[in-house]
Amino acid sequence: MSKSKRMKRKILMLSALLMATSNSEVMAQQEKKYTELKTITTSEFINVSADTLWRIISDPNISRWSTLIDSTEYFGEEIFKGVPWSKRTSMVNSKGHHESHEDLIFHDDSRREIKFASTKFPGFIIANETHWKVIDNGPKQSLLRTTTIMKMKKLHAFFLKKTMLKAINRNGNGIYYDIKHYAENGKVSLSKANRIKELQKKQLDKRTKNRIIKKTLRSDIINVSEDSLWKICREFDKTAVWTSTLHHSYGIGKPEHEGTTCSSRVCETNIGKGNELVEKLVMFSDKNKELSYDLIEGAPGFIILANNHWKVIKVAPNQSKIEMNVTLHMKRFTGFFLHELITSQMKKEVNIVLSELKIYSETGKVPEAKRKQIEKQKKKEKRKQSRVEKEELYP
Q: Are both 142 and 262 inside the same structural domain?
């Protein structure tokens, strides 16, 4: 190695060392700007095995049993082996009724341990993590240990430390009560049952104040058996394969109904640009050949509820129909002016779906409108790829 190269290498190493030292000093200064609140608590003895408790705790949908959580959505790519989700969004039943956003940062079945990091929080909180660990205490006895680590800005911590610790302990005690009851009895606690009733009442109150539209639409006779038709319809996440009313669709979330591959689907519609919807399966039955889903994200503000119920009906050994029952709940004032327009648009879209399903079921080929849509999308992607390649060649 030449003398000049050795000198250059030394300079680079020195620069890196100085930068690392500088970063450490900055981090140390930042470290001093916040206060860490750390709590470690353990539940009472829970009279089920550690494996049983772990199955409940490791299931991301804790809204099934926790009074603190009203609803949960989980999604994201697999990071930890065998865990088909990496993010969770929950509606928290607490003062202010806020949304909680968490990333899964650790999951170990052998250690029965799971950790989450919040990704959205008030400005005075720097970071927030929750760790759950199931402890084996014998063949049919276990405990749940919870560790919370919250980093707050020092000034806010000075005034809010006691309040935050009190809230953390209160929520933790509620979770321990709910999980113990659910694990030992196989049903939700009294507080969770009351919360479910409260939410149902609120939903009912909302519906009575809304304008409700219900329409039942049926396809023409489709010349395939009911089993063949259901085989297509049951693939809830792949509807965009055959209908031109959707550009794309894919499934998200851990299955909640037997026979399904997801809990919700994301769809990009052909109305507007990038109009993305999220629809959640609320009922699914292979036996009865029917499914039902709610629109949970992407609806206009005046749409309170949108539900579609599909049912395959046998006509003859090699003939069938599909029936779609659409229910819309609209804000009464807006619904008064727009219900006819919305109903007309909805019927138009559903009739397209029905006619295209008939073509796809009978021929195995996508309808002409879908074929053109696919070709258009391919050309668009090809042009985009060409632009990217040019930018790489001529930056």
A: no
Q: Is 229 helix (H, G, I), strand (E, B) or coil?
A: helix
β pairing state of 210-218 and 246-252: unpaired
- Contacts of residue 158, defined as CB under 8 A and 6 or more positions apart, other chains included, come to 35
Cα dihedral 172/148/63/326 (nearest 10): 140
Token pair 């009733």 is found at: 197
Position 11 in a domain: no
Domain extent, residue 155, equals 34-187
Q: Say yes or no to pLDDT of 19 above 50.
A: no
- Structural domain total, the chain: 2
**What is the 8-class DSSP label of residue 180?**
H
Alpha helix stretches (DSSP H) within the chain: 3-31, 50-58, 154-185, 190-208, 226-233, 332-363, 368-393
Q: Mark whether 170 and 304 lie in a shared domain.
A: no
Residues 96 and 46 placed together within one structural domain of the fold: yes
Q: Please indicate, yes or no, whether residues 122 and 83 belong to a single structural domain of this protein.
A: yes
pLDDT tens sequence across 162-185:
999 999 999 999 999 999 999 999
Residue 206 sits at the vertex; the CA angle it makes with 201 and 207, to the nearest 5 degrees, is 100
94 pLDDT band (50/70/90 cuts)?
A: confident
Q: Is the pLDDT of residue 388 over 80?
A: no
Residue 187's SS3 state is: coil
| φ, ψ dihedrals at 270, nearest 5° | -95, 10
**Count of Cβ atoms closer than 10 Å to residue 57 Cβ:** 21
Concatenated DSSP letters for 207-253? HHTEEEEEEEEEPPPBSS-HHHHHHHHT-GGGGGGT-TTEEEEEEES
Greatest Cα pair distance, the chain, in angstroms, is: 89
147-186 as b/e: b if 16+ CB within 10 A: ebbbbbbeebbeebeeebeeebeebbebbbbbbbbbbeee
| CATH at 310 | 3.30.530.20
**pLDDT tens readout for residues 21-72:** 444 443 344 455 789 999 999 999 999 999 999 999 999 999 999 999 998 8
Using alpha carbons, select from 300, 299, 306, 289 the residue that is nearest to residue 236. Answer: 289
221 and 76 assigned to the same domain: no
